[in-house]
């Protein structure tokens, strides 16, 4: 029942009211039907929407990509133990081999090719910091590959806000998310 769902929506009582909504980074189609109507209504009625990061801004995407890279001249092979690097490389070869069978007919119909999708997700992996490679590997599963092309909830809401001509902004900078992750040592990763 819609009325029984936990909305992850908090109301800040003021005039007009403000709302705080908790999202998760999953394809919006996995959760959209479970988002209560009060949350959807609050979004529709809002004139200004702030997100964790502005995922529609090319600078944000570029900065996220850059922050994941090892310092110039370093490669993952230089920082990972040899056996882990070898297993990682073998796993990525396996994923690349399996990816065509993981893709949906709908993805193929939209012109997505397995090689393109693999490169979009794992391209330049040998230049990435270990923590980002770990996050990348965690998303290289059949279930996640099948949902590629569907925006995560945050991005979907940002695209909707843009489409509805709402004023948007971000509460964090890329560096505020990137630097703590890049500060983890190898054993923490």
TrEMBL record:
Q: What class of enzyme is it?
A: hydrolase
Read off the InterPro entries from this record.
Answer: TIKI1/2-like, TraB/PrgY/GumN_fam
Cofactor binding, per record = Divalent metal cations. Mn(2+) or Co(2+).
Q: Which GO terms describe its molecular function?
A: metal ion binding; metalloendopeptidase activity
CC annotations in GO? plasma membrane
Indicate the segments annotated as coiled coil, or none if absent.
none
Query: Which domain of life does the protein's organism represent?
Result: Eukaryota
Q: Specify one Pfam family.
A: TraB_PrgY_gumN
Q: How does it sit in the membrane?
A: Single-pass type I membrane protein
Q: Which UniProt keywords apply?
A: Cell membrane, Glycoprotein, Hydrolase, Membrane, Metal-binding, Metalloprotease, Protease, Signal, Transmembrane, Transmembrane helix, Wnt signaling pathway
EC assignment? 3.4.-.-
Which cofactors does this protein require? Mn(2+); Co(2+)
- Gene Ontology biological-process entries: negative regulation of Wnt signaling pathway; proteolysis; Wnt signaling pathway
Name where it's found: Cell membrane; Membrane
Q: Which family does it belong to?
A: Belongs to the TIKI family.
Q: What does this protein do?
A: Metalloprotease that acts as a negative regulator of the Wnt signaling pathway by mediating the cleavage of the N-terminal residues of a subset of Wnt proteins. Following cleavage, Wnt proteins become oxidized and form large disulfide-bond oligomers, leading to their inactivation.
Record's protein name? Metalloprotease TIKI
The source organism is: Ciconia maguari
């Amino acid at each position: 029942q819609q009325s029984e769902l936990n909305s992850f929506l908090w109301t800040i009582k003021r005039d007009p009211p403000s709302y705080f909504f908790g999202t998760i980074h999953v394809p919006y189609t996995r959760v959209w039907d479970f988002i209560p109507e009060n949350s959807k209504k609050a979004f529709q009625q809002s004139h200004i929407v702030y997100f964790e990061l502005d995922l529609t801004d090319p600078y944000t995407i570029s900065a996220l990509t850059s922050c994941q890279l090892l310092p110039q001249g370093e490669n993952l092979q230089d920082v990972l133990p040899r056996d882990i690097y070898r297993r990682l490389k073998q796993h990525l070869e396996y994923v690349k081999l399996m990816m065509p069978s993981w893709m949906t007919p709908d993805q193929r119909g939209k012109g997505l090719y397995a090689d393109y999708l693999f490169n979009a997700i794992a391209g330049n992996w040998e230049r990435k910091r270990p923590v980002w490679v770990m996050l990348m590997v965690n998303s290289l599963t059949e279930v996640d590959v099948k949902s590629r092309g569907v925006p995560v909830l945050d991005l979907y809401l940002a695209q909707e806000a843009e489409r509805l001509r709402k004023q948007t902004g971000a509460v964090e900078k890329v560096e505020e998310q990137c630097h703590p992750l890049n500060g983890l040592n190898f054993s923490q990763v």
